[in-house]
């Protein structure tokens, strides 16, 4: 019970920011002395500190806020992108302490062994720069592919050219031998982590049921049901980009044909607008052409909008979310052809009640996936703060 309550207090301060004891008492439904003892224990374990709340202080009566400490515990968060590896040290509260970016320019750079070396080197550089005495307690890795939750085996990551590589196990060994750091390594699909972060501290904070979608070349998805990320039996859930929507459509990178991402991804938009694929730069050129009124570009974005509306309606019918978060290319499509998306979506919903859903864009920007990786890495400490050593025994009653 005490462990559960410790996790509830630190979890609240981690997600919501500095909170007074009175607010904790009210929000968590515990009495004042229990909250006091829990805050003292978290403080002794180095996770929180109390500071005076100058802004809200009423005359003659100092008030204190419980806030997370960012100089005692940190995790390593890694985002594997197609052309960049990003590594960061992140403290509880989602505070990014430092970031390192390494460009991947050649296929050799993207090879599994080279990427392991790149990650280990960046991690070492950032860990050495942490404030003296900071404990690194875990590592979270965002992968642009299908990842087994249990051991971080990457089943398939098309953009990196990886198939069945033991990422989690090899990273753990590498960190142990290179840095003497033996911590859990949690590897997850990048879109799932984006969903987790937007749910923890972004546009979806406090929303129990949400669908998060992010489109670039591929389409990733993360589905939060009753406050928890839907992962499925092995952690392969959420592959919404490979819903088959058009059996006569184009071949997909997964080996199938007519998957949703072949109709709504960047390549579809660019091809419909009569351009050759060329990454984000060409997508932006097409979007500028839409603004300029070029007929083929306008037709292209409206076609993608129609397929987006079809897919979103299917997901709303399946999960009945309060909110759908549309990121990456989907945010652009909403901006340039939002009414077409919504018109198509309406025709596909099974009841008018399903229309009671907010269509929004993410608010954490380029950091959403990185913060999601930090969330999974912090999870063991936040769910059981008693696993941390007591630093200040005197303050424990
Ligand atoms: Zn596919």
Structure description:
- The protein is an alpha/beta fold and 397 residues long.
- It folds into three domains: 2-69, Arc Repressor Mutant, subunit A (Orthogonal Bundle), CATH 1.10.10; 73-192 and 367-387, ATPase, nucleotide binding domain (Nucleotidyltransferase, domain 5); 205-362, ATPase, nucleotide binding domain (Nucleotidyltransferase, domain 5, 2-Layer Sandwich).
- The chain is built from twelve helices and 16 strands.
- It has a five-stranded mixed β-sheet with strand order 6-5-4-7-11, with helices on both faces. A five-stranded mixed β-sheet has the order 14-13-12-15-16, sandwiched between helices.
- The longest helix has 25 residues, at 295-319.
- It is globular, with a radius of gyration of 23 Å.
- The structure holds zinc ion.
SSE topology:
Blueprint: H1 2-16, E1 19-20, H2 21-28, H3 32-44, E2 48-52, E3 64-68, E4 73-80, E5 84-91, E6 95-103, H4 112-128, E7 135-143, E8 146-147, E9 153-157, E10 162-166, H5 167-179, E11 185-189, H6 190-201, E12 210-215, E13 219-225, E14 228-229, H7 260-264, H8 266-272, H9 279-291, H10 295-319, E15 323-328, H11 329-348, E16 358-360, H12 368-383
Parallel strand pairs: 4-7, 7-11, 12-15, 15-16
Antiparallel strand pairs: 1-3, 2-3, 4-5, 5-6, 8-9, 9-10, 12-13, 13-14
Helix pairs in contact: 1-3, 2-3, 4-5, 6-12, 8-9, 8-10, 9-10, 10-11
Bound molecules: zinc ion.
Zinc ion (ZN) binds at residues 242, 252, 254, 256, 259.
């Amino acid at each position: 019970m005490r462990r559960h309550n410790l996790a509830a207090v630190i979890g609240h301060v981690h997600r919501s920011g500095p909170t007074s004891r009175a607010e904790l008492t009210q929000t968590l439904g515990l009495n004042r002395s229990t909250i006091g003892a829990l805050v003292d224990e978290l403080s002794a374990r180095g996770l929180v500190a109390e500071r005076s709340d100058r802004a809200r202080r009423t005359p003659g009566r100092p008030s204190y806020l419980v806030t997370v400490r960012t100089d005692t515990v940190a995790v390593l968060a890694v985002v594997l992108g197609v052309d960049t590896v990003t590594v960061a040290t992140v403290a509880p509260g989602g505070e990014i302490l430092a970031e390192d970016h390494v460009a991947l320019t050649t296929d050799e750079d993207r090879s599994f062994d080279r990427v392991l070396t790149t990650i280990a080197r960046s991690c070492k550089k950032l860990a050495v720069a942490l404030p003296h005495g900071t404990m690194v307690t875990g590592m979270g890795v965002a992968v642009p592919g299908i990842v087994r939750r249990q051991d971080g085996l990457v089943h398939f990551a098309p953009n990196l050219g990886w198939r069945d590589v033991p990422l989690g196990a090899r990273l753990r060994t590498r960190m142990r031998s290179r840095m003497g750091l033996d911590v859990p390594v949690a590897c997850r699909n990048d879109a799932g982590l984006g969903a987790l972060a937007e749910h923890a501290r972004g546009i979806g904070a406090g929303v129990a049921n949400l669908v998060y979608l992010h489109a670039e070349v591929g389409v990733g998805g993360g589905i939060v049901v009753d406050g928890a990320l839907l992962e499925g039996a092995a952690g392969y859930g959420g592959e919404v980009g490979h819903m088959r929507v058009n059996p006569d459509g184009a071949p997909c990178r997964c080996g199938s044909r007519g998957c949703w991402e072949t109709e709504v991804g960047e390549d579809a938009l660019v091809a419909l607008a009569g351009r050759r694929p060329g990454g984000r730069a060409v997508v932006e050129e097409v979007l500028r052409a839409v603004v300029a009124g070029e007929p083929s570009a306008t037709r292209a974005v409206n076609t993608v909008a129609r397929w987006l509306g079809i897919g979103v309606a299917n997901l709303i019918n399946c999960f009945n979310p309060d909110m759908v978060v549309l990121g990456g290319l989907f945010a652009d499509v909403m901006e340039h052809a939002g009414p077409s998306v919504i018109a198509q979506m309406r025709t596909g919903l099974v009841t008018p009640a399903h229309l009671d859903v907010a269509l929004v864009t993410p608010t954490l920007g380029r950091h959403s996936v990185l913060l999601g990786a930090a969330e999974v890495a912090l999870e063991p400490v936040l769910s059981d703060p008693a696993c941390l050593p007591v630093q200040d025994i005197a303050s424990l009653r």
